Amino acid sequence: MATITSGQSHGASNGVESHVRFIPLSYDGSCSESSALQLVTELRPEWKSPDSQIEFVRFTDGITNTLLKAINKRPGLSKEQIDHEAVLLRAYGHGTDILIDRQRETQNHELLMQHGLAPELLARFKNGMMYRYIRGRVTSPSDLRRPEIYLAVARRLAQWHATVPCLHSTFAERNGLVGKTNTPYEAAVDLAAPGKPPPNVWTVMQKWLLALPTETEKERGRQAELQKEFVWLTTEMSQRPGLGKNGLVFAHCDLLSGNVIVEPKADAAVTNGEGSQETVSFIDYEYATPSPAAFDLANHFAEWGGFDCDYSVLPTRAQRLEFIQEYIKTYFRLLPERPAALDEEKEVKTLFKEVDKFRGAPGFYWGIWALIQAKISSIDFDYASYAETRLGEYEAWRAEDTGLRAKQGTEPSLREKRWAQDE
């Protein structure tokens, strides 16, 4: 273990000043409890008292990070009081800095905190962060398919997209290279979608493509093939008009069930003044970035099937329409500059078509991601098979969208059949 020193603040750019304490320690999965204990007691020195009864609860909903809930069952405290003091400790998966801009993640968290959409970020450490526990229940994929839950997700996602500004910066600014000549790599990333200020979901995908393994001839060929496909995808999709400035909104981009928390009704009533509707919060902002709203929605809909990619339970046209109607109603109600002449029905139809158009993009996005994870991750998950499954979603959409599938006279994929189902 590293020597403990006093905490320090780390500055952030783009108008979000960081004052988050940094603890120069690491979480070690091989001695999970002892390293987690050292981190939380450094954060909360009062937990070193003789009457402390610290316990850790492990959450296993993700496939990249370690997430622990630290609680202190001191005598005389109620469950609510214990939860109020609880800390969530999230340790990053091995090698994931290749995939995720951690400084950007901290900025995202603090930006969301300013808008009341994220729990207080308490501290960062060498390979993770600690933040306040959000009371509530983590959803399962089947929960996402319940109308009262998916309508709550629609409202919360609309709030993100309508009220949180997109933060933009150049590659040089993000990586401390201001004043230095941009390399071809930096230019390739920042100009992945010409005219769209970086970072955005397109620059993220380009960065991932350039991080793909290229040790063998087969890997180099695969990278070249995917890069060619990405150029087609960005040409086809990145310049489409959409909600937000420059057609981009501040998007979560990883809205799977494990990142959706159903809040207790009493808490929601205090926060929102509404006790009848379900209310949800989102956690884990490591992939959050400016993106077309349609991508964020299509990505969430893909998660209805969970990591098993059960295409038989993806949202039907009727379910997507219900979600989008609730989203649009909330989005324009919360938008700071609401259009004077608003045709809500037209906006619903437009976004419905855009989400339909974007339905294959999440498969490409997570397919590239999984190809990298297959090389770097130590987690027991078959990333290689997952990559092919997700890329297969994209290929099926591509064949459908271009008319190739109909021309060849083959059957639509199960996913495409489900997507086209009315009820």
UniProtKB/TrEMBL annotation:
Which CDD domains does this one have?
ETNK_euk
Which top EC class is given?
A: transferase
Q: Which GO terms describe its molecular function?
A: ethanolamine kinase activity
Q: Does the keyword Kinase apply?
A: yes
Q: Name one GO biological process term.
A: phosphatidylethanolamine biosynthetic process
Q: Which family does it belong to?
A: Belongs to the choline/ethanolamine kinase family.
Q: What is this protein called?
A: ethanolamine kinase
